[in-house]
Amino acid sequence: MVKELISSAEDHMKKSVDVVRREFASLRAGRATPSILDKVTVSYYGTPTPLNQLANISVPEARVLVIQPWDKSVIPEVEKAILKSDVGITPSSDGTVIRLIIPQLTQERRTELVKVIKKKAEEGRVAVRNIRRDTNDSIKAKQKDGIPEDEAKRGQDELQKLTDKYVKEIDEMVKAKEQEIMQV
Predict the structure, then answer these.
(1) pLDDT value at position 184?
(2) Which of 61, 76, 101 corresponds to the end of one domain?
(3) Which of 9, 110, 174, 182 has a 20 to 30 A CA-CA distance from 63?
(4) β strands within 84-161, DSSP E
C-alpha cells in the first residue's frame, strides 16, 4: 500500500521536473531554438493552433529562426501571434517565410532571465514538496487504518529521499541554464 503511494508520488514528481524542464527550454538564452515558440498559438481560421502545427520552424544560423508556414495566407496571423506572445522578438516577413532574429542578450536581460529561471525552479521545488506533503498525509492516514508504524516510517524516509533527488535535479537544471544564459 505504501509502495503504491510512493510510486505514484514519484510519477508526479517526475512530471513536475519535466514541467520545469519545458519551462526552461522555452526561455531564450541568446541562441535560436525552436522551443522558444512552443507556447505561441495562432488563430488559424478561428481556431487557436500551436505554431509548430502550422509551420516548419528551422534554425539556419545561430541567431536566426525561420518559420515557413505551410499555408502562406496565415503569415499575417503568425506575425500577430508572435508579437502578442512573450517571446519579445519582432518578426520580419518576406511573403513566404518569417524570420526571427534573436538579439544579443544584454547583461541586464541576462540577470532578469536568471531571476525568472530561479522563480520557475522554486515553483517546481514547491510542487515536489507539495507532492511529498500530500503523500505523507496519505501514509499517516493509512497508518491510522492499520499499516505498521515501521512500514509507514520507511515509506516516509523513502519519500524524503525521492524529494531530495528531484529537488537536486531541479537545482542542477538551474545551474546549467544559468551558465548557459550568463555565457557571453
Answers:
(1) 59
(2) 101
(3) 174
(4) 92-93, 98-101
Q: Which CATH number belongs to the domain containing residue 69 in this structure? A: 3.30.1360.40
pLDDT number for residue 28: 64
pTM for the complete prediction? 0.70
Low-confidence ranges of the chain (pLDDT < 70): 28-30, 184
Whether 129 and 40 map to the same domain: the answer is no
Domain count, the chain: 2
CA distances from residue 182 to 29, 35, 51, 174 in whole angstroms, order as listed: 8, 19, 29, 12
Same domain, 153 and 122: yes
Residue type, 57: I
| Same domain, residue pair 61 and 116 | no
pLDDT attached to residue 3: 86
Angle between helices 149-182 and 107-144 (to 10 degrees): 170
* Cα dihedral value 48, 51, 82, 43, nearest 10: -20
Q: How far apart are alpha carbons 170 and 179 in whole angstroms?
A: 14
Are 47 and 70 members of one domain? yes
3 state SS of 171 = helix
Instruction: List the domain range (segments joined by +) for residue 61.
Output: 34-101
Cα-Cα-Cα-Cα torsion 33, 35, 37, 43, nearest 10 degrees, comes to 140
